[in-house]
Write a structure and sequence with these properties.
The complex is a heterodimer.
Chain A: H1 2-22, E1 40-52, E2 76-79, E3 82-89, E4 94-105, E5 108-120, E6 127-135, H2 156-162, E7 167-176, E8 182-190, E9 206-217, E10 221-239, E11 251-269, E12 279-298, E13 304-324, E14 327-338, E15 341-342, H3 345-350, E16 361-372, E17 375-385, E18 391-403
Antiparallel strand pairs in A: 1-2, 1-3, 1-18, 3-4, 4-5, 5-6, 6-7, 7-8, 8-9, 9-10, 10-11, 11-12, 12-13, 13-14, 13-15, 14-16, 16-17, 17-18
Chain B: H1 2-16, E1 23-27, H2 30-40, E2 44-48, H3 63-71, E3 74-77, H4 87-94, E4 106-108, H5 141-158, H6 163-187, E5 195-198, H7 204-210, E6 213-217, H8 228-240, E7 245-249, H9 254-264, E8 267-271, H10 281-292
Parallel strand pairs in B: 1-2, 1-3, 3-4, 5-6, 5-7, 7-8
Helix pairs in contact in B: 2-5, 3-4, 5-6, 8-9
Classes of the chains: A mainly beta, B alpha/beta.
Chain lengths: ~400, ~300
């Protein structure tokens, strides 16, 4: 059989080889460029098996008032985000992109909009304007899609501050300087429709400023440093999850102002700058949030509220090493702190803003097998000390992509 | 205080306006940087996004490249999806309208010539294949000449003031190249009909030019690294029908190649897939052909 195959391939090679003699020195004629499919489409398939020691429904992060769905996800076999993205140049002036996510909850499928934005291509002077629904540029992981992350779950600080990732309806302006060291400056204005802002504002609900710098050191090393600041001055009703009280749950609501300052550092190495076979990455992000206002327990009777002065901070550091083609391994350490104050500690505690004298921590390790650029199988283990009651978590996850070639972002 | 401000303003001005108004060229691969240098000479400031030790499929849109793309007047790349993983992102992040697709500053070599191995079936089970055809065109001296002509026209469009210079450079380059090609053709007579095994299918243009016969690739599918089982099948196949050499680039995994070479006794030849930083295309072709002929004049490395 093998020999037959070989003979066949030799025959094919010979057949192909024959016209080689016919080629004379006339230059080949310019071809009609056959447009590849436009717009580009990609579909991400993602699923996992999860095992937790604790009940994932009882997950808490003391000192942090968690938004809607910032939990551990489902135990056992489940689907992650199935994502359908369509993107392309609209014309010579604009690029456009839409990403839809399909989520499954208790057997029901929900369609969500993850991204829908347009972006300028031809403004000049290094300026780019983005408008629509998009990921904020603050932080490093925030701008990446979660399927491009090196771990199957968000860093604790992302979970604590943003539910998952910070995105909203808005406008972004960014500028790249004409320097050899990469320098990007930008600002964003958001409607404030999503956590951790609270409810859409008539004008600007939240805004950010950000700066990124980066470059190479020799041929083998590259770095990126990012600074960001997020600000929401007039949050009126930001709902978070509180202690359940049977039939009449009291829902914590925050009103006031909130400021987040962020820093991220990324360093990458590859032998000869050739990342194909081996490469190494270390990344670190740190966020600091200060809030002032009031926390009210909705549905409580009589209506309970407290002055609130919050300070939450934390981050993670992680390394990933591709030690041979197709195989990567990584480690991550998360650490959070909080120091929240208020006139009524009972209410703070009801709103999960009491840190219970605990500093949340998490240790994670993962190993990945990437049979091709389009498929990935990942085994991940977390020792999660989010709360006093430590949890051991194991995930086996697949993330596969169909369609257009994914972007190699830094 | 005022002095400081004045000084920093002056410094900014100096940085912003280089003494000689050169055309800033960002090339994706070293071969186009070399070609641009031959054609543009001192009128161009050229930066290559990759070295010949790097696989151009596998580059990331890293900050330094965005900074270079921001400043470029002309982008010279292979195209045909070779840089599909990183170039589109680089272009979007650059905020530079001059080098966007469709603009004068956007030059894709593969769009100037016909491509071989255009697949009839596009299915990822066949590996990471390029829909437009095989993009590794820089190994064909005939296509190089066509691209040189088109690149010269592009340079003239961008910098008409130096038209005569560019035309002279092209004339000189063409003459030199044609003479070299006559010699290369003569020199490589001995290679006609030689049977080769390659790591990745990036030699098709060289195979066609020199009349080499490729019987196998080490990658079972384009972009998929060889497995042990596949390699042992290769060994038994090659024992039946021996090949003359195993050809691979320096940036590709050497381990599997050495293993196969030891098992079968077939000579492994590692070549630089692109010119070195200070090398002309002509010098690099010379070096490459010498290596294939087995009279290596290595610049660096073990072979």
């Amino acid at each position: 059989m093998r020999i037959k195959l070989l003979v066949a391939s030799v025959a094919i090679a010979l057949f192909n080889f024959y016209p080689a003699f016919a080629v004379d020195d006339k230059p080949p004629v310019k071809q009609q460029t056959d447009n590849s499919f436009n717009p580009a489409m990609s579909l991400i398939l993602d699923g996992r098996y999860a095992n937790f020691n604790n009940n994932p429904e009882a997950y808490t992060l003391p000192g942090f008032a968690l938004g809607g769905e910032s939990g551990l996800g489902e135990e056992g076999l489940s689907l992650g985000h199935t994502e359908l993205a369509i993107s392309g140049n609209v014309d010579d002036k604009f690029y456009g992109r839409v990403a839809l996510i399909i989520d499954q909850h208790a057997g029901h499928s929900e369609l969500g909009l993850e991204e829908a934005f347009i972006q300028t291509l031809g403004l000049g002077h290094g300026l780019t304007i983005t408008a629509g629904h998009f990921f904020s540029a603050i932080g490093y992981l925030n701008e990446q899609h979660e399927h491009a992350w090196d771990f199957g779950d968000a860093p604790l600080i992302y979970r604590g501050l943003f539910v998952h990732q910070l995105r909203d309806n808005g406008l972004q302006v960014s500028f790249v300087a004409t320097t050899n060291t990469f320098l990007q400056l930008g600002a964003e204005a958001f409607s404030g429709s999503r956590f951790p802002a609270g409810g859409e504002q008539e004008d600007i609900g939240a805004w950010t400023v950000f700066a990124n710098m980066g470059g190479d050191i020799g041929i083998e090393n590259s770095w990126l440093l990012g600074l960001g600041h997020w600000n929401a001055d007039d949050i009126t009703n930001r709902i978070s999850s509180g202690h359940g009280h049977g039939a009449s749950p009291e829902i914590p609501s925050f009103a006031g102002n909130s400021k987040i300052t962020a820093i991220d550092i990324v360093y990458k190495w590859a032998p000869n700058g050739n990342a194909k076979d081996r490469n190494f990455k270390v990344q670190l992000e740190y966020f600091d949030r200060r809030e002032a206002g009031t926390v009210t327990l909705l549905e409580s009777s009589p209506l309970e509220n407290t002055d609130y002065d919050g300070h939450q901070k934390g981050g993670y550091v992680q390394t990933v090493y591709q030690f041979m083609p197709e195989w990567r391994t990584g480690f991550r350490y998360d650490h959070l702190e909080s120091d929240n104050d208020g006139s009524d500690y009972h209410i703070l505690s009801e709103a999960r803003l009491d840190n219970e004298g605990h500093t949340p921590k998490r240790y994670s390790a993962m190993i990945e097998w990437l049979p091709s650029e389009f498929s990935r199988i990942r085994l991940q283990y977390n020792h999660d000390e989010s709360s006093e009651n430590a949890d051991d978590q194991t995930f086996l996850q697949y993330t596969h992509s169909l369609g257009s070639h994914g972007a190699h972002q830094f | 205080m005022n002095k400081k401000i004045l000084l920093s303003l002056l410094l900014m001005l100096l940085l912003a306006s280089p003494v000689e108004a050169q055309i800033s060229v960002l090339s994706c691969e070293p071969e186009w940087a070399s070609l641009a240098k031959s054609l543009g000479g001192e009128h161009l400031a050229i930066y290559s996004a990759t070295t010949n030790q790097q696989d151009p499929h596998q580059i990331q849109a890293r900050p330094s490249l965005i900074a270079k793309a921001r400043q470029a007047d002309l982008l010279v790349c292979t195209g045909a999806e070779l840089e599909g993983g990183w170039l589109p992102l680089l272009l979007r992040k650059s905020g530079n309208p001059k080098i966007q697709p469709g603009q004068t500053g956007h030059f894709m070599a593969a769009e100037q010539v016909t491509l071989l191995e255009k697949p009839t079936v596009l299915d990822r089970s066949l590996g990471d294949i390029h829909a437009a055809g095989n993009p590794h065109i820089h190994l064909d001296p005939v296509r190089i000449l066509q691209i040189a002509k088109d690149l010269t026209n592009r340079l003239i469009k961008i910098d008409p003031a130096n038209q005569t210079n560019y035309q002279q450079n092209l004339k000189f380059f063409t003459e030199e190249w044609q003479n070299a090609k006559t010699q290369w053709d003569k020199k490589t007579e001995a290679l006609r009909g030689k049977v080769i095994v390659v790591y990745h299918s990036d030699w098709v243009y060289l195979e066609q030019w020199l009349g080499l016969i490729r019987v196998a690739t080490l990658e079972p599918k384009p972009g998929i690294p060889p497995t042990t089982a596949y390699l042992s099948r290769l060994v038994s196949g090659l024992q039946q029908t021996p090949a003359d050499m195993i050809l691979y680039t320096r940036y590709q995994e050497g381990k599997a190649v050495h293993w196969l070479s030891q098992k079968t006794g077939i000579r492994a030849v590692a070549v630089d897939f692109s010119p070195a930083t200070d090398e002309t295309l002509l010098q690099w072709f010379d070096r490459l052909l010498d290596q294939l002929l087995g009279s290596p004049a290595p610049r660096k490395g073990q072979f």
